[in-house]
Amino acid sequence: MRQFIVLGHDAPTTPDFSLDDLAGAAGRLDALCRCVNSAFFLSHDFRSDVRLFLVMQDELTIRFEGSELRRLNPDERSTAALIRKALEAKSEAIGHMEAESTPGVFVSKRDFETILDEASRRATVVELHEDGTPVVDLEPPEDPLFVLSDHGDFTDEEADLLAEASDERVRLGPALLHGNHAMTVAHNYLDTDGYTEY
Amino acid sequence: MRQFIVLGHDAPTTPDFSLDDLAGAAGRLDALCRCVNSAFFLSHDFRSDVRLFLVMQDELTIRFEGSELRRLNPDERSTAALIRKALEAKSEAIGHMEAESTPGVFVSKRDFETILDEASRRATVVELHEDGTPVVDLEPPEDPLFVLSDHGDFTDEEADLLAEASDERVRLGPALLHGNHAMTVAHNYLDTDGYTEY
């Protein structure tokens, strides 16, 4: 399984935002929606063996489970509508328990540290870092977990947590990429592994 | 210079669409907006050495010129608003001449065949094809031109034009990707060329 955690530093934690202003008043929710797109969509197909966590302001987390997802479309606006539904359901999420808002979408009051701890148990944590090893020189792990940030950089605390959990430090290329683009390149790298002729 | 042509089979050719329904009544304009994003954005940076043509229903073409672009943001909605402005300016585009609607965005009444002929003159035309050579086995060309389709497949006529112009037939990986994801992978492949240590 491929897992991704994306940290939304300004992302909404309540559903009272407008779908007409995702890049503004909704705290750059557009960037997170593009990450959902990159996690799951293929041409005429879907990556069901993927799990994505969106951490909203380190207060709560929305989990997208590829094998159970329904009603997901590629565009930002409809993805934001699914996220809004998840935020509407957060009162049903008690303690660290999750509530399912639509098929395959779950909300819980868990922060980055809790999610990272849980997701990394059966995964190889890949830290994307500009001083990392070029991805082409590495054997892709079986069950990778990638941690990415939205439009903003990691906070010092997030970077420390990630560095501590990290199994591999990797660079995807010479250019610094947006989170969703990094996810697409990571998928391609994992897809291509083992295929000398594809 | 890196060039991309993206064919929008259902894309609007008039500005009378709503920004609230890009994936519906606006003919999957969301898919084209994501291609604009993939063409130009880097983390805290911008790919100015890129030219992107969006061919709208083979009737008119919108050119995004990286070195001149202003006012472009990563989200689908604001990109669609720039496209709408271009469509509003189409009456100023006479014959094959272009009209500039916002800095770096140009509209003209040119079809795919005309654009392909012009763009390919000083470029290596790379045809992305499932039977192509794996991209990792190829030396990246200096001035590549990639031709992609939106959510739909190429028509027979488009495929024939492309096959005729094609210099290389390439496959980016074993999975079939959305156009915008293919652009991100292509950029990464070109970025990485020549960098044994990055």
TrEMBL record, chains A, B:
What are the BP-aspect GO terms?
Answer: tRNA methylation
InterPro entries according to UniProt = Alpha/beta_knot_MTases, TrmY, tRNA_m1G_MTases_N
UniProt binding sites for S-adenosyl-L-methionine: 128
Q: Which GO terms describe its cellular component?
A: cytoplasm
Reactions it catalyzes: pseudouridine(54) in tRNA + S-adenosyl-L-methionine = N(1)-methylpseudouridine(54) in tRNA + S-adenosyl-L-homocysteine + H(+)
One Pfam family, short name: Methyltrn_RNA_2
- Kindly report the protein's main subcellular placement as a broad class: cytoplasm
Q: Which Gene3D superfamilies match?
A: 3.40.1280.10
Compartment(s)? Cytoplasm
Q: Which family does it belong to?
A: Belongs to the methyltransferase superfamily. TrmY family.
Spell out the subunit comment: Homodimer.
Q: Output the NCBIfam families linked to this UniProt entry.
A: PRK02135.1
Protein name as it appears in the record: tRNA (pseudouridine(54)-N(1))-methyltransferase
Annotated organism of origin: Haladaptatus paucihalophilus DX253
Per the UniProt record, the lineage of the source organism begins with: Archaea, Methanobacteriati, Methanobacteriota, Stenosarchaea group, Halobacteria
